[in-house]
Amino acid sequence: AQKITQTQPGMFVQEKEAVTLDCTYDTSDPSYGLFWYKQPSSGEMIFLIYQGSYDQQNATEGRYSLNFQKARKSANLVISASQLGDSAMYFCAMRTAVTSGSRLTFGEGTQLTVNP
Amino acid sequence: GAVVSQHPSWVICKSGTSVKIECRSLDFQATTMFWYRQFPKQSLMLMATSNEGSKATYEQGVEKDKFLINHASLTLSTLTVTSAHPEDSSFYICSARDGTGANVLTFGAGSRLTVL
Question: What is the pLDDT averaged over residues B58-70?
Fold first, then answer.
């Protein structure tokens, strides 16, 4: 079975500082993809970043980077230079080759609050 | 980029009535769409996988006769909540694979259902 764990229900960060949101996963499938989504209070799910299990380098997308540690089965999201607009719920998700199509398994989420 | 449109964004209905939610891929064809349900402060839970031209695949515990899914075209999937009850009140969100190399799921903006 696939499982995603986000152990931080809530995180606080000062504006302009960096923050790391934790995510660990469990799967026996050697081929998988890891995703991070942002969900503001409006409810929409915004794709942030993707890391494939065979990718040699950590993924980066602007202020977002993914600290992928395969041996530890962790895929932490790092947000640099936090902005007030980064306040939202963040979900880590996983897709494996075993699951059909592109269905994702989501973690419980982390509520990030950026303070001015 | 890929856009998924979901309508209505919010709906209030009386107990016992049926509600239809539409999910459209605006600039790409989606043979598969996914329907998720999200309760307040919780993660997204996959309800069913909608397949164009065939029956939907429901997750364990999801009543297929209550949550009717129709995927009649490559750009439209509908979820009908039949004989809605207050416990069906939730945030329903659809998604589709946009066909890019990363198989990123693009989400609609969600539909907030309140059953009185």
Answer: 94
